[in-house]
Amino acid sequence: MKFHQPDSELFIPDGITLPAALGRTTHLAVAAHQDDLEIMAASPILECFQSREKWFVGAVVTDGRGSPRAGLYEKYTDEEMWTVRRKEQKKAAVVGEYAALALFDHPSSHIKDGSDQKAVEDIAALLRVCKPQILYTHNLADKHDTHVGVALKTIAAARALPAAGRPQKVFGCEVWRDLDWMADNDKVGFDVSAQENLQAALLGVYDSQITGGKRYDLASMGRRRAHATYFASHGVDTATGIIFAMDLTPLVADPQRDIAEYIHGYIHRFAQDVAERFTRLGLNS
Ligand SMILES: [Zn+2]
Questions:
Q1: CA–CA separation, 24 and 27 (whole Å)
Q2: Residues forming a β-bridge with 11
Q3: N or C, which end of the chain has less CB nearby within 10 Å?
Q4: Quick one: residue 107, left, alpha or beta (phi over 0 = left, psi -120 to 50 = alpha)?
């Protein structure tokens, strides 16, 4: 299997042959950076962990060269950071028992260029071989350009597949800007109450980012806990961890569907929810 970037790589944690490793895929997530998979796709990682029938494949689109650095890593060059981040992502793939990990190694500039097809082709090539039932990527209202760029390229890649070969479900997950704002009926909630130890381990391998000054490990676990408690204002907590997602399936099932209009529908329903409450409370606008 050949991807565009010369240093792209397919890493198989358990060392079996490539066709066997990819052929067992059931869940596949495409993320922008090293550590995004573990923040946004904890649900499929946990679901596939120690399973014989379900296997998780992770794909990281960018190279990690421009990562922020501090502390132990302060004096690292871009090349050294590239090595460290790639090593950390592979550690997570081992800890999480991924079926495979694809490192596409694109510079962010490829992703921010809407006309650049290289990442789309790489993602499509992986999808064609892995044939996941469920596909995860970033959500379309994330506030990081590279994240939304990866989501758009992932949607384009899934749309390029023949209709029968497309994933049955596609979800946009939360990293930068969570999805608590969505109307409750629109929210897809993944219960990640189980194995907090494993979730913490997956987040904890990213020492260069955490020591580098961002407690993504604590913040991500805290967000999962907060979602579980604040999701429903009545009743007791039945889950202790929830990750929210946006259903992107209609955009892949119908390649003609307008993407901007689709996300605007979510924003419109949020605005409606706020407005209807005011009306109920007697505030006339
Ligand atoms: Zn990211």
A1: 9
A2: 101
A3: C
A4: beta
